[in-house]
């Protein structure tokens, strides 16, 4: 059973339906007491980082997420849900995140290394460059195209957590992970075959635990 | 590098796809979900559903369509037509659409763009612009209401205003080229590309794979939308994508 963390800022409909297509049981809860005891969790998210942290706190999910991660329960962060797992974000003034992954969330500069302007948001299908093919999450996933929509991206010194990147005027973290906590900047439920495979692999990781 | 996107557009009226799409191998040629699946299988990168219902019931039916498409497809889609208020935007996105496309309603009340962008982020807000070349002024004029009503806006002014207010993408339809199948309106696209920093979707004029090649290489459009050449099977999304890939255009 997957618990989908509903703090009011996600496209829960699409991700729920993707889980249904994969025949994976899930429940959605907007309070920790509704979600205790799940085998794994999904942290979705669309919107602004400070609003999301505030909403997580209001729904009392901050302590809950830390507790589950410490207990070793698998967690998958999607899009903004991935960004929240880092230490802080510069979106709307610096805001602390959950600090599970080392690094910060920065806005795309919009100017490449040669001084030329490029478009922000990074929107559309981009090819992944898989760096950690041995990871269980990446079973049967190749350097496929996945769908990105974001103006802010993770910046980290810790290369070990970079499971896959995508090239958009710099190496953009596409999939990050450490142990049982994984996340993708793109929406797996909107990323065709590769995205569905990732969700399926996550559930396999979860069931094995 | 981002791939160039090929986007089929489906017109939906009272929950049914109109314009007589001709696919023999599906059970119900008017079912938006069935057609969406066909395009997904052909490799469509995204879909646009344009609701042209006039009635209130039709609008409600559209939400059911949105839910069904979101339930069955794993690619992004945009919904336009008749979205006039923040509530409409919320309802459409919460039922599984990835983006909404605002056209006449945004011209009438540009604050709607900002309200939507503030609430959901710019990436969810597409501003669709219909424009026509006006010879006396040697400029492009923005039209609303399906191209029936000219506005005071010049194309480049409105495109910039829309982006300033929070549009995350511009869907630009050339009324001069629409339905002509003689290629996209490259000068019009160029004019908009040079003044905005958000992705631009080219629309109007697609008649062959070469036209897609031109719009991606000559004016560097981010995406191209077409309806009839796909619906009437003059070519398929798959064929266009293969052609572009062979010519070195980045394609998924």
Question: What this model shows, in words?
Answer:
Chain A: The active site is at 79 (nucleophile), 187, 189. Chain A: It is found in: Cytoplasm. Chain A: Its EC number is 4.3.2.10, 3.5.1.2. The complex is a heterodimer of chains A (209) and B (252). Chain A is α/β, with parallel strands linked by helices and 209 residues long. Chain A has one domain: Rossmann fold (3-Layer(aba) Sandwich), CATH 3.40.50.880. Chain A has five helices and 13 strands. Chain A has helices spanning 12-21, 49-58, 61-71, 80-83, 192-208, and strands at residues 2-5, 26-29, 40-43, 75-78, 88-89, 95-96, 104-107, 122-130, 145-150, 152-155, 162-167, 171-178, 181-184. Chain B has 252 residues and is of the alpha/beta class. Chain B has a single domain (5-246), classed as Aldolase class I (TIM Barrel), CATH 3.20.20.70. Chain B contains ten helices and eleven strands. Chain B has helices spanning 32-42, 56-72, 86-94, 104-108, 111-120, 155-164, 186-193, 209-217, 228-231, 237-246, and strands spanning 5-13, 16-17, 47-51, 77-80, 99-102, 125-134, 139-144, 149-154, 169-174, 200-203, 223-226. The relative contact order of chain B is 0.14. The mean pLDDT of chain B is 92. Chain A binds chain B through residues 11, 13-14, 17-18, 20-21, 46-48, 110, 117, 119-127, 145, 147-151, 167-168, 187, 189-193, 195-196, and chain B through 1-3, 5, 45, 67, 70-72, 74-76, 93-96, 98, 120-124, 168-169, 197-199, 222-223, 252.
């Amino acid at each position: 059973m997957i618990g989908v963390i509903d703090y009011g800022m996600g496209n829960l409909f699409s991700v729920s339906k993707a889980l249904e297509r994969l025949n994976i049981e899930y429940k959605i809860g907007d309070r920790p007491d509704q979600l205790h005891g799940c085998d794994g969790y999904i942290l979705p998210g669309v919107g602004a980082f400070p609003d999301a942290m505030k909403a997580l706190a209001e729904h009392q999910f901050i302590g809950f997420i830390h507790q589950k991660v410490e207990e070793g329960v698998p967690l998958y962060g999607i899009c903004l849900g991935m960004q929240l797992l880092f230490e802080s974000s510069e979106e709307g003034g610096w805001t602390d995140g959950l600090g599970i992954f080392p690094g910060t969330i920065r806005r795309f500069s919009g100017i490449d290394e040669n001084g030329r302007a490029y478009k922000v948001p990074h929107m559309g299908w981009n090819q992944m460059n898989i760096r950690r093919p041995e990871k269980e999450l990446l079973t049967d996933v190749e350097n496929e195209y996945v769908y990105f929509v974001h103006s802010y991206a993770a910046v980290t010194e810790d290369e070990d957590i970079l499971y896959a990147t995508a090239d958009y005027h710099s190496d953009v973290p596409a999939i990050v992970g450490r142990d049982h906590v994984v996340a993708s900047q793109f929406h797996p439920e909107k990323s065709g075959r590769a995205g569905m495979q990732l969700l399926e692999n996550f559930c396999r990781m979860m069931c094995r635990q | 590098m981002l791939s160039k996107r090929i986007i089929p557009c489906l017109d939906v009226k009272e929950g049914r796809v109109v314009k007589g799409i001709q696919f023999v191998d599906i059970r119900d040629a008017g079912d938006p979900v069935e057609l969406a699946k066909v395009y997904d299988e052909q490799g469509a990168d995204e879909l646009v559903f344009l609701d042209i219902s006039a009635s209130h019931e039709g609008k409600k039916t559209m939400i059911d369509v949105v839910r069904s498409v979101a339930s069955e497809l794993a690619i992004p889609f945009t919904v336009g037509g008749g979205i006039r208020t923040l509530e409409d935007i919320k309802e459409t996105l919460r039922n599984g659409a990835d983006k909404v496309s605002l056209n006449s309603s945004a011209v009438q009340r540009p604050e709607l763009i900002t309200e939507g962008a503030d609430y959901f982020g710019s990436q969810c807000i597409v501003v669709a612009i219909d424009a026509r070349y006006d010879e006396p002024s040697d400029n492009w004029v923005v039209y609303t209401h399906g191209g029936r009503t000219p506005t005071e806006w010049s194309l480049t002014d409105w495109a910039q205003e829309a982006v300033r207010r929070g549009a995350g993408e511009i869907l630009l339809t050339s009324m001069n080229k629409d339905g002509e199948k003689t290629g996209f309106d490259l000068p019009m696209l160029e004019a908009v590309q040079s003044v905005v920093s958000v992705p631009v979707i080219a629309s109007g004029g697609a008649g062959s794979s070469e036209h897609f090649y031109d719009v991606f290489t000559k004016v560097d459009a981010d995406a191209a939308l077409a309806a009839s050449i796909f619906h009437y099977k003059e070519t398929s999304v798959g064929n266009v994508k293969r052609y572009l890939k062979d010519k070195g255009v980045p394609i998924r």
